[in-house]
Design goal:
The chain has 395 residues and is an alpha/beta fold. The protein has two domains: 3-178, Flavin prenyltransferase-like (Rossmann fold, 3-Layer(aba) Sandwich); 185-394, 3-Layer(aba) Sandwich (Rossmann fold), CATH 3.40.50. Helix content is 34%, strand content 26%. The protein contains 13 helices and 20 strands. It has helices at residues 17-26, 45-52, 70-77, 88-95, 102-109, 122-125, 128-138, 165-181, 214-225, 254-265, 307-314, 330-340, 378-394, and strands at residues 3-8, 30-35, 56-57, 80-86, 113-118, 143-145, 148-151, 157-161, 189-194, 199-202, 205-207, 229-234, 247-250, 270-273, 280-282, 301-303, 319-326, 345-350, 358-365, 370-377. It has an eight-stranded mixed beta sheet, with helices on both faces. Strands 3-2-1-4-5-6 form a six-stranded parallel beta sheet, with helices on both faces. Strands 7-8 form a two-stranded antiparallel ribbon. The longest helix has 17 residues, at 165-181.
């Protein structure tokens, strides 16, 4: 089983590290723990030693250590490093190359993937220095587990609470599972639509929707990690283009997206239509800005081409997945869409989550089976979607 090195910092959430260690051990992981001296003021090392069944490391100058140089050997032993809770202080240290205690020194010498689960006062969380440090570390492939909103030790309901222990363990599970499953999507061609479309009324106005594109971009990011050759056709978003794509196609209108998709669909293995496409467009787009000359403005709309429906018509060997963002009768409406558009699976979710970084969804397959996923970060739900796709492929 995999080796996980857990760093525990001196925030009040340090007591939750015991639960994280316990849950990881129950899943069969080998766990070792490094604590900062401040963390030992909140939870005793003996607690974590008992739960991990390993010595807890605190002092760089421990006279009872073995022959190994521990800050090197621990980093070499670990398959993954998780800091939970991670304080404002430890993020600043790592980002600026400071290694002045056991934890920061081990992190500086550790070459495995590192996950940092944030937990701190809301004012510290919102400090722009922290944001800068996080962005800096992301460039060096550090992974961040964002805080939840909830009741904090400072008697405030706000952002900064350590993410639920079960969620943290699931993120670690998904990381290792993605490593195992990488071969399942290696070489597979995945065509993905994401973002919203914009249908112009005149040079300054257009019809659109609230889609942020986060769900589709998360799928693209995870699919690349799973070994797929990803073509992302995207409407307007404020997001950075995911790294590692085979092709990125920027479009604006539904017609442009339709043409880009059908040009590439026949030569793909998996199609995932995540974009929020406008169903209608203005029949006439004015060359000049429309002036406010009357009390009423009548706009005649034409129907846009149904991209997913046409993908379903042309489907041959492809696995085809669609999304149903609904405000009512979510399962019923999604099931109708699944059948009408000849899909292998549909992801049904509440349209109110469009701008959120989190999402909850129900996966419905063409055999009628359903699986519910509770609210979680979209990047994690993206992994779940691709896992189900790989299950369909291997049937």
């Amino acid at each position: 089983m995999k080796n996980i090195l857990i760093g525990v910092c001196g925030g009040i959430a340090a007591y939750k590290s015991a639960n994280i260690v316990s849950k990881l051990k129950k899943k069969g992981y080998n766990v070792k723990v490094i604590m900062t001296k401040n963390a030992t003021e909140i939870i005793a090392p003996l607690t974590l030693e008992t739960l991990s069944r390993n010595k807890v490391f605190v002092d760089m100058w421990d006279k009872n250590r073995g022959y190994e140089v521990e800050h090197i050997s621990l980093g070499e032993w670990a398959d993954l490093c998780l800091i939970a809770p991670a304080t404002y202080n430890i993020v600043g240290k790592i980002a600026n190359g400071i290694a002045d205690d056991m934890l920061s020194t081990v992190i500086s010498a550790c070459t495995c993937d590192k996950f940092i689960a944030l937990a701190m006062n809301v004012n510290m969380y919102n400090n722009p220095i922290l944001k800068d440090n996080i962005e800096k570390l992301k460039k060096y492939n550090y992974h961040f587990i964002d805080s939840d909103e909830g009741f904090l030790a400072c008697n405030t309901n706000a952002k900064g609470r350590l993410k639920n222990e079960d969620d943290i363990v699931n993120i670690i599970d998904n990381y290792f599972l993605s490593k195992k499953r990488k071969k399942l999507l290696t070489g597979k061609k995945l065509l993905l639509t994401a973002g919203r479309t914009e249908e112009p009324l005149d040079p300054v106005r257009y019809f659109s929707n609230n889609s942020s594109g986060k769900m589709g971009y998360s799928i693209a990011e995870q699919a690349v990690k799973l070994g797929a050759k990803v073509t992302l056709i995207s409407g307007p978003t404020d997001l950075d283009v995911p790294k590692g794509l085979s092709e990125f196609v920027q479009v604006k209108t539904a017609k442009e997206m339709y043409e880009a998709v059908l040009k590439r669909f026949d030569d793909t293995d998996i199609g995932i239509a995540c974009a929020a496409v406008a169903d209608y467009k203005p029949k006439v787009c004015s060359d000049q800005k429309i002036k406010k000359n009357t009390d009423e403005l009548v706009i005649v709309l034409d129907k846009n081409p149904d991209i997913l429906y046409n993908m379903g018509l042309r489907k041959d060997k492809q696995i085809l997945v669609g999304f149903a963002a609904e405000t009512e009768n979510i399962i019923e409406n999604a099931t109708k869409k699944l059948k009408k558009k000849n899909l292998d699976m549909i992801v049904a979710n509440n349209a109110h989550n469009m701008k959120s970084s989190n999402n909850a969804a129900t996966f419905i397959k063409k055999d009628g089976s359903m699986k519910e996923y509770e609210q979680k970060p979209k990047i994690d739900l993206a992994f779940d979607i691709l896992t189900e796709v790989s299950n369909i492929i291997t049937k």
